[in-house]
Automatic annotation (TrEMBL):
Belongs to the DUF177 domain family. It comes from the Bacteria. Keywords: Ribosome biogenesis. InterPro entries: YceD, YceD_bac. The keyword Cell membrane does not apply. It holds the Pfam family YceD. Plays a role in synthesis, processing and/or stability of 23S rRNA. It comes from Wohlfahrtiimonas larvae. This is Large ribosomal RNA subunit accumulation protein YceD.
Amino acid sequence: MKYAEFPLKKTVNEGRVYEDSLSVEHFPRLKEAVHSVDSPIRFRIQGETNPLGQKEVKGNVAVDLSMICQRCLEPFQTKFDLPIHWIPVKDESEHDLIGDDEALLLVEGDEINLLELLEDEVLLTLPLVPKHDLNEDCDGKDYLEKLKPQEDKKQPFAELAELLKK
Ligand SMILES: [Zn+2]
């Protein structure tokens, strides 16, 4: 299966289902964006016709990856399992007919690069400032806690700490 030339039109028209698991080598931008990709990228793509008669694509994409915590600068792992919902349209004029802007997928021709689209879905979900969850061990969290009672002293990192909270 050449996912870079994915037969989107046939998939929605014929209600095809694709399920696969690919190595990160197919997703260079994702590899670049994170500390490490710790699992294959798994996905399921299903073409269907919704009750309004619109052709759409549903499914999910899942991956485990590690990012660098911006508080303590240690890597931490996150598991993503993102729903996919695309309504393919040929041009902007079809927007009005649909209403669900988030799902619109502008497509020229009958094929899409599925790899890039799946990669986009994951990249758009990555946090701008990755951080450990508050209930996880994070040295940076301890550091920020220790800063608190010393507010009358000079705080060279206070501004940084403020930035990291956002
Ligand atoms: Zn941390």
